[in-house]
Specification:
Radius of gyration: 25 Å
Order of helices and strands: HHHHHHHH
Helix content: over 70%
Number of helices: 8
Shape: elongated
Strand content: under 5%
Number of domains: 1
Structural class: mainly alpha
Mean pLDDT: 82
Low-confidence stretches: 1-15
């Protein structure tokens, strides 16, 4: 029996890398932009602004990387626990599990002799049987340890890059000029992210760009207003 009849095409690897980069970069940029505007409103000291920005960037990078790691590890643990349960059920109640395979492929449009052959082929191999139940019944994909590490690294590095962008002008300019340049850079990047998302989702580019910019500017304004309360 051609195994392509009983297994769907292997999906893309969990977590599109570009999406992971956007996730981390956007979060880092928006968070630090709000902080920088708050610090700029509170003080004219470039040294204080840079120190506060760098400290927050490090904390934000480590936090996002840790969250990405723990969330993927939780997904991996969940998959392994469900797989162990399926292995146990196939051993203890094979008739019930076989019935579930029949129902799954009958719902896909298979019937008669072809359905019988598919079910017989799947249930003749315990590993294939478990893999099929995990994919078709529970809709779960395996999470490999290397993917966990890769995901955490990508999110962490992209957060670092996105967060560092608004801070760059402060190394070369006075705070008042630096914050204007920082705002322009941030708006351009956020608009670009919006256009990319619109291209992927086949939605309105202008709408997505404005949405991303408004989210970023909302955080910036909030940071600025809080900074005014503690202005030195």
């Amino acid at each position: 029996m051609d195994e392509q009849l009983i297994q769907e095409h292997e999906p893309h690897k969990r977590g599109n890398r570009l999406s992971d980069i956007i996730l981390g970069g956007q979060d880092g940029l928006v968070s630090i932009l709000g902080l920088l505007l708050g610090l700029s409103a509170a003080t004219n000291s470039t040294r204080v602004i840079i120190a506060g920005g760098l400290a927050t960037i490090i904390a934000e990078t480590l936090s996002m990387g840790a969250v990405a790691y723990t969330s993927m590890m939780a997904a991996r643990d969940h998959y392994e626990a469900e797989r162990a349960r399926e292995v146990k059920e196939i051993k203890e109640v094979p008739d019930q599990e076989r019935r579930e395979i029949v129902d799954i492929y009958k719902a896909k449009g298979f019937n008669g002799r072809l359905l019988d052959e598919i079910v017989a082929h799947i249930t003749s191999n315990d590993r294939l049987w478990v893999d099929t139940m995990m994919r078709e019944e529970l809709e779960l994909k395996p999470v490999h340890l290397k993917d966990v590490h890769s995901y955490a690294l990508v999110v962490g590095v992209s957060t670092l890059a996105g967060a560092f962008l608004p801070l760059i002008p402060f190394f070369f300019m006075q705070p008042n000029a630096a914050i204007i340049v920082s705002l322009f850079l941030s708006v351009a990047v956020l608009a670009g992210i919006g256009i990319y998302k619109a291209t992927i989702n086949l939605s309105g580019k202008l709408k997505n760009s404005l949405q991303m910019v408004l989210i970023g500017m909302g955080a910036a304004v909030a940071g600025y207003l809080i900074g005014l309360l503690f202005k030195v």
